[in-house]
Write a structure and sequence with these properties.
This is Glycosyl transferase family 28 C-terminal domain-containing protein. It comes from Corallococcus coralloides (strain ATCC 25202 / DSM 2259 / NBRC 100086 / M2). The chain is of the alpha/beta class. The chain folds into two domains: about 170 residues, Rossmann fold (3-Layer(aba) Sandwich); about 150 residues, Glycogen Phosphorylase B (Rossmann fold, 3-Layer(aba) Sandwich), CATH 3.40.50. The protein contains twelve helices and 13 strands. Helix 1 packs across helix 12. The protein is globular and about 60 Å long. It starts with 6 loop residues before the first strand and ends with a helix.
Length: about 325
């Protein structure tokens, strides 16, 4: 346990699930160490996730409607920051705020400020003078990947962050049962992750269909989604069942890639275009695919690799613990 209970506020605005996932990983460990955590998110997936029960007592989740316009979102952030003075404010990825609102709001926060500093598109960094915004923070935590200001004098590097430690994952047998396979079913599992933009959801659906056709009888092809979806299997966190997955198909987002690498799960992934995140840089040549035919070929090849599961690591270093300790030191 930490020496003193602290009140943390976590700003995790941003589309998709990535910002929320990173913040949830941080919040879960902070709550387990006795801190009170308020988490702000506008992820469209947040309303469908059991975040409060998963994070534990001491966590409060403020869900901002993802459909709000810029002015309404900025107003919601201002109201949230004005509610109380925390011991520390943690901001994920965007030092200026998602809409630039933190430039004006941060000076009103009478608490130490921590930036979760990740790679950002250099065009954005230069255009909006992100270097100046970064200097408003007392600590930069760099979670396992290089970033523009990773050598800042107030920067601390950690291993990549994951939602769960190794001992919290289901065993291979339990994970396969959770994924709907009978104990007598020896087929390998191909899990397709696809829950982003509408066109990406459609592509995931098509990918599942093609793989089920090409791998008919040779593998169980499942479409995993974080919240209820008509055609997918709802599993969150997906990391829970990763030991039951033989090949993971998805995109090059931070959490998918880091979870695959930590668990040693073979990954086949698209480099999705994003405004700030550069997925192509995160993926290796062996992981990245450019079209459907290449994807099918790589999946089939990985399934033919003998003894793949036996070589996977039983544990990993979860950098979120070191991050929590670093934030505790800077908090009042």
């Amino acid at each position: 346990m930490a020496a003193r209970r602290q009140h943390w506020r976590l700003y995790a605005l941003g589309g998709g699930l990535g910002h929320l996932t990173r913040a949830a990983a941080l919040a879960r460990v902070a709550v387990a160490r006795g801190h009170a955590v308020d988490l702000l998110t506008n992820s469209p997936f947040a309303p469908g996730l059991p975040l409060e029960s998963w994070l534990g007592p001491g966590a409060t989740v403020h869900r901002v409607d993802a459909r709000l316009d810029k002015a309404a979102t900025v107003a919601a952030v201002g109201a949230w920051l004005a509610e109380s003075t925390p011991d520390v404010l943690v901001v994920d990825t965007f030092p200026r705020g998602l809409a630039g609102e933190l430039v004006a709001l941060l000076p009103t926060v009478r608490a130490p400020r921590v930036l979760v500093h990740r790679d950002l598109n250099p065009v954005y960094v230069e255009r909006f003078d992100v270097a100046l915004a970064v200097d408003a923070f007392d600590l930069l935590v760099v979670p396992g990947e290089d970033a523009p200001f990773a050598h800042h004098p107030r920067a601390v590097r950690t291993a990549p962050w994951l939602l769960l430690d190794a001992d919290a994952l289901l065993s291979r047998e339990e994970a396969r049962r959770r994924l709907g396979l009978d104990d007598g079913d020896s087929r390998p599992v191909v899990a397709v992750m696809g829950c982003g933009r509408p066109e990406e959801v459609a592509e995931a659906r098509e990918t599942v269909g093609r793989l089920r056709t090409s791998l008919a009888g040779h593998a169980a092809v499942l479409w995993l989604v974080p919240t209820a979806h008509a055609a997918g299997m709802t599993v969150w966190p997906a990391l829970t069942v990763m030991r039951g997955v033989d090949v993971l198909v998805g995109a090059g987002g931070y959490n998918t890639v880091q979870e695959a690498r930590a668990t040693g799960t073979p990954l086949v992934a698209w480099a999705r275009p994003r405004l700030y995140d550069r997925q192509a840089l995160r993926l290796t040549e062996a992981e990245r695919v450019g079209d459907a035919a290449e994807l099918e070929a790589k999946v089939a090849s990985l399934l033919l690799t003998p003894g793949g599961y036996d070589a996977r690591p039983p544990a990993w270093l979860n950098g979120v613990h070191a991050a929590v300790e670093a934030i505790e030191r800077v908090a009042r």
